[in-house]
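Re: beginner question about structure tokens

> Can someone show what the tokenized structure looks like for a real chain? I only ever see the sequence side.

Sure, here's an example I had lying around. Input first:
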Amino acid sequence: MSSLQDRPNLASIRQKAETLAGAIVRTPFLAAPRLAALTGSDVRVKYENMQVTASFKERGALAKLVTLSKEERARGVIAMSAGNHAQAVAYHATRLGISPKIVMPETTPHVKVSATRGYGADVVLEGETVAEAQLAAERIAAAENRVFIHPYDDYDVIAGQGTIALEMLADVPDLDAIVVPVGGGGLVSGMATAARALKPDIRIIGVETRMYPSMWAAMNNVRASAGGATLAEGIAVKNVGEKTLAIARDLVDEIILVDESHLERAVNAYLTLQKTMAEGAGAAGLAAMIASPDTFRGRKVGLVLSGGNIDARILSSIMMRELAREQRIVAVRLEIPDRPGVLGDITTLIGTEGGNILEVSHRRTVLEIPAKGASLDITLEARDGGHAEDVIAALRRRGYGVERLLAG
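And the corresponding structure tokens:
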């Protein structure tokens, strides 16, 4: 199969769908009533985290790999990626008998590096950013005569990603809007191409982290700085593609920027409400709905949960931080008399009030505390903010001075 030389259209995306059939999971697109209650919209979720490598990137990677000639396959391929494109190329190249080499930034989470190696790739860690990793990949590609598989700025890749919109609108033809995470722009430009052709009045809304507003800046013809450690490292791109930008300018209605707190809430909501894993980039669409609920209120909205490859330690931290934000985990400091029975009295009182003690730190030797006193730091679990205040009020009624400590 030859590569696309011209901008994708509905016909070429449909052709890609036929090519991918059987090799890619046709992921479910399901109503999410609990997310609807959270956002005030009729929400449907496209679960691309159910692909073999837990990301939509398989569609574009395979759409490109199958176009390679016999001679190109023999040379092997190379890609640069912070994780999901890497795994997709590694998995499908190995499956097709093609040698894959992947360059990943040194900052890539270990879980993604390990998974990429597990799919059969030779992984090279080089550079602090995706841009630096790309320079390394281009250098290695030239030295080893490998075929470079771009993660987004390639028409075959764009068309492959566009197959998601075909499936979404086949399942729910009356969608009002589709909300898409944006990094380099391959996903949003492919989906916008298909969706606009099928339903011209549908709204296509992209989402970027505020720390990397590259597509937003390019579409608005402004300069914007990009950098920093974001939960959404999968869309932490400083420069969008030329091909993807041209399509986005024509077809994307709006780019919404979200903060880290919105991403954390979205990841937590997917886990606790939908019982599914979403990485920061994968949860960006839901983060936009949390950040700008009025934009979507009352509409039938399709979300793309684009990936579920998240480090377990990060996920654990997010869950604890959300519990603290909801005041279901509360930290307090008490100054108490240093005499027998006081600690037991406090723990019994908290238990009587329905609180659950998670952690206690008892200090006697700090100079700010009187010689006959002690400082007690307690982390406790409550049902909600009101219940936490009831527990604190009970402690104060017993005569203990209580100071709330900062959450998180």
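Each token stands for a local structural state, so reading them left to right follows the chain. The two ends are 53 Å apart (CA to CA).
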